[in-house]
Structure formats: structure tokens, C-alpha cells
């Protein structure tokens, strides 16, 4: 049985999530995608141009899926765990931003 099939808590999921985001380019693409999502949301709030919100899933999912399939060679976990995946993408973004996680895996 795969670890993925046994996930019951978010804490377990986040550990699984991190095993799927090992390579620096994967983390960088996820970071960039979330950064662009926040930029779009900020722009929409400032300008009132709601029509630009459709960029959010393109940036958020596009960068993540690209990096998962090209660099990690695995399936994005969002397919099975939508809410936990979105929460984990945001968590990883803020952990990288604050220096609690690094793009380059430490040895």
C-alpha cells in the first residue's frame, strides 16, 4: 500500500508533500506560481479588475504541474488532496520566504 493511501492528517500529508518537492527547481516554480497568484490578487484588490482573477489557477496550478511532471517526474498530489495541496503550496511559499525551508536541499 502506498503512503499516499494511508494519509489521515494534514501533518502526515505535509510530510508526504515534501517528499514530492525535493528538487530546487520544483520548489522555485511552486514559489513563483504562488507569488504570481498573490500579485494578481493584490492587483485585483487595488484596481477592481476582477476579470484578472482567472489568472490565479493558471499561475498556481500551471507552474506547479509543470515542475512536478518535468523536474520531479511525479503526479501532483492535488489530484487526490485538493485542499491540503493548496494549503501546502501556500505553506511552502511562506516557509521559503521566511527562510524556514530552503530551495536547495541541505545535506
From TrEMBL:
Pfam families listed in its UniProt record: Mpo1-like
Keyword GTP-binding appears in the UniProt entry: no
Transmembrane portions of the chain: 28-46, 52-71
Keywords linked to the UniProt accession: Membrane, Transmembrane, Transmembrane helix
Entry superkingdom: Bacteria
Name of the protein described by the UniProt record: DUF962 domain-containing protein
Organism: Epilithonimonas zeae
